[in-house]
Amino acid sequence: MREPSLTGNVASTTLVGKKVKLRPKRLQDAVTDYGWRTDTELCHLDAAPLMKNSFEEFLSDYTEQLRHPVPGLRFAIETQDGKHIGNLSLFNCDDGKKKAELGIMIGDKAYWDQGYGKDAVTTVI
C-alpha cells in the first residue's frame, strides 16, 4: 500500500490497526461529530470551544470543510465493526522532514480506557 502524503488535503486511504480502522472523514460523520462538539466534558478535555451553532449551521460548515479541506489528514476512528468512535488528524505536516502534529479524540465515552486511542496512534504512525 502506498504511504499517504502528509501534505495532501484529504485522507484517501483506510488504515487498519488491531482494534480500529482509520478511514477518510465523510458527511455521515457530522451527526456524531456535532454531538461531541456540543459535549461540555469533551470540549474541555479537547481544549476546544463548545459548539453553539445549530446542527444545520454546523452541517453547512462541515460540508464546506469536506469540499475544501485545509492541509493535513483527517481520519474517522472506527471500531473493527464500523462504529465511529472518534477522530484523528495530522496537521502542520512536512513531508520533507517526515513530521506532523497529531490530534486525537475518542468521542464515544464507552470506548475510553480500552486502548482504542493508542491503537489509532500506533496505526497512523
Report on the structure:
The protein has four helices and five strands; from the N terminus they run E-E-H-H-H-E-E-E-H. Mean pLDDT is 90; it is low at 1-10. The chain has one domain (15-124): Gcn5-related N-acetyltransferase (GNAT) (Aminopeptidase, 3-Layer(aba) Sandwich), CATH 3.40.630.30. It is globular. By secondary structure, the protein is of the alpha+beta class. A five-stranded antiparallel β-sheet has the order 1-2-3-4-5, with helices on one face.
Which features would summarize this protein structure in a list?
125 residues, alpha+beta, Aminopeptidase, 5-stranded antiparallel beta sheet, 5 strands, disordered N terminus
Strand and helix layout:
Layout: E1 15-16, E2 20-24, H1 30-37, H2 40-45, H3 55-67, E3 73-79, E4 84-94, E5 99-106, H4 116-124
Antiparallel strand pairs: 1-2, 2-3, 3-4, 4-5
Distance between the termini: 14 Å
Radius of gyration equals 14 Å
Structural class assignment: alpha+beta
Biggest sheet architecture: 5 strands, antiparallel
Note the beta-strand portion: 25-35%
The poorly predicted ranges are 1-10
Strand order of the largest sheet: 1-2-3-4-5
- From N to C, what is the helix and strand string? EEHHHEEEH
Mean pLDDT: 90
The CATH architecture comes to 3-Layer(aba) Sandwich
**CATH class, please?**
Alpha Beta
